[in-house]
């Protein structure tokens, strides 16, 4: 049986997910919520998202796209959340736990819910009483821009319910998308959050003028930071070299498409946080994550010098040049 799937969010990744689903099964069963009514009108008229991945043709029926969240949630069995983490609480503010009851909720978000300082699975479980067995996470090294171009990409679907993860993975498999399944929902989410911070660091270093030689050292240290942290938070046996962990860090730290690296690059070149954000049409999750991880790590006290340096630059207005020079003394 083909389930009804809703995507919540109107950005690049949501548009890419709509494309993957549409290339795989009946578009009649796909629903899409976004907040921007003008974008919805444009989509209904011209079949393209005007603001993100505008080359992608959208084939789902006009009536399946709406800015009425309750209606879209009500229609679907599987709900893919894909607004940036900073706006998730506000987006879901009019949805009650009752409206999520019995539904499978999938996070395609790579971020932390601010103030709550929770990963998305924890937030859904604690604030919306969604059982962990009904929560899935989509992760892995995959840029929306390459999905639009149908470049071969791999995604990891993580859940404590690996049977459900396998079923959902099949909904995403296409000619250009391959999927893996993992039971490490906490490690997968935290690694995806942290890699955004390290991509900001990578961009800052590039903006200052550090070369590829140093970038390689930075990223080698970053993967060890990720390992230390996820092992502290959720100590299970995992191979940090798998693509959901190392792969995601690499693509985000090196790709021309990376929003976090682009944002960091501007900071390294002397832009203020505000001006760098205004310059970008897109959201760099690493900016928000640096602050949330700073708070979360007060509990775990994991040694995370790169993450700490990014926090100091973005939130304590430390000089990127000085902070990165100090960091170089701690890397190996
Ligand atoms: N892009 C990618 O390749 C990937 C992204 N992700 C994750 O997907 C999530 C969404 O990112 P992505 O699709 O890239 O987003 P984009 O950066 O492409 O787009 C920004 C999105 O944020 C919304 N937004 C901006 N400001 C606000 C606000 N104040 N309140 C509510 N919504 C707002 C925008 O809505 P509007 O247009 O209405 O302003 C738009 O939908 C993130 O967690 C990201 O890490 C994960 C894997 C890959
Ligand atoms: O998570 C992503 C790719 O896996 C996208 O984030 P960036 O655009 O910052 O690389």
Automatic annotation (TrEMBL):
> Where is NADPH annotated to bind?
12-13, 35, 52, 110, 144, 259, 283, 285
Q: Where does NAD(+) bind?
A: 87, 144, 259
Positions binding sn-glycerol 3-phosphate in this chain are: 110, 140, 195, 248, 258-260
Residues in the signal sequence: none
**What domain of life does the UniProt record list for this protein's source?**
Bacteria
Q: Name one GO biological process term.
A: glycerol-3-phosphate catabolic process
User: Which key words are in the record?
Assistant: Cytoplasm, Lipid biosynthesis, Lipid metabolism, NAD, NADP, Nucleotide-binding, Oxidoreductase, Phospholipid biosynthesis, Phospholipid metabolism
Q: Which HAMAP family match?
A: NAD_Glyc3P_dehydrog (MF_00394)
Subcellular location(s) per record:
Cytoplasm
Q: Which Pfam families match?
A: NAD_Gly3P_dh_C, NAD_Gly3P_dh_N
Q: Which organism is it from?
A: Pedobacter heparinus (strain ATCC 13125 / DSM 2366 / CIP 104194 / JCM 7457 / NBRC 12017 / NCIMB 9290 / NRRL B-14731 / HIM 762-3)
Pathway where it operates: Membrane lipid metabolism; glycerophospholipid metabolism
Active site location: 195 (proton acceptor)
Main location class:
cytoplasm
Q: Which gene encodes it?
A: gpsA
Q: Supply one GO molecular-function term.
A: glycerol-3-phosphate dehydrogenase (NAD+) activity
Q: What does this protein do?
A: Catalyzes the reduction of the glycolytic intermediate dihydroxyacetone phosphate (DHAP) to sn-glycerol 3-phosphate (G3P), the key precursor for phospholipid synthesis.
Give the similarity note. Answer: Belongs to the NAD-dependent glycerol-3-phosphate dehydrogenase family.
Entry EC number(s): 1.1.1.94
**GO cellular component entries:** cytosol
Glycerol-3-phosphate dehydrogenase NAD-dependent C-terminal domain: residues covered:
184-321
- This one is known as Glycerol-3-phosphate dehydrogenase [NAD(P)+]
């Amino acid at each position: 049986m083909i389930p009804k799937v809703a995507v919540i969010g109107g950005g690049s990744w949501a548009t890419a997910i709509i494309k993957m689903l549409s290339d795989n099964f009946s578009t009649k069963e796909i629903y899409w919520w976004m907040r921007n009514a003008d974008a919805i009108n444009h989509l209904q008229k011209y079949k393209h998202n005007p603001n993100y991945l505008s080359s992608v043709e959208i084939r789902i029926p006009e009536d399946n796209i709406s800015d009425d969240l309750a209606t879209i949630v009500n229609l679907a069995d599987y709900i893919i959340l894909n607004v940036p983490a900073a706006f998730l609480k506000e987006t879901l503010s009019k949805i009650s736990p009752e409206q999520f009851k019995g539904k499978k909720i999938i996070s395609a978000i790579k971020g932390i819910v601010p103030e709550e300082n929770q990963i998305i699975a924890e937030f859904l479980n604690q604030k919306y009483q969604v059982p962990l067995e009904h929560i899935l996470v989509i992760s892995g090294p995959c840029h929306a821009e390459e999905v639009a171009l149908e470049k071969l990409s791999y995604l990891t679907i993580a859940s404590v319910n690996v049977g459900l993860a396998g079923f959902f993975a099949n909904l995403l498999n296409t000619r250009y998308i391959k999927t893996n399944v993992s039971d490490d929902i906490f490690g997968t989410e935290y690694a995806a959050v942290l890699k955004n911070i390290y991509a900001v660091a990578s961009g800052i270093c590039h903006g200052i003028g550090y070369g590829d030689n140093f970038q390689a050292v930075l990223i080698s240290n970053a993967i060890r930071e990720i390992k230390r942290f996820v092992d502290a938070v959720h100590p299970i046996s995992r191979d940090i070299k798998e693509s959901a962990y190392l792969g995601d860090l690499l693509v985000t730290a090196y790709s021309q498409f990376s929003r976090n690296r682009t944002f960091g690059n501007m900071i390294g070149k002397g832009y203020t946080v505000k001006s760098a954000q205004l310059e970008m049409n897109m959201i760099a999750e690493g900016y928000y994550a640096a602050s949330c991880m700073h708070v979360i790590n007060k509990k775990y006290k994991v040694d995370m010098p790169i993450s700490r340096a990014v926090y100091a630059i973005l939130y304590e207005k430390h000089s990127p040049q000085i902070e990165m020079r100090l960091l170089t003394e701690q890397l190996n």
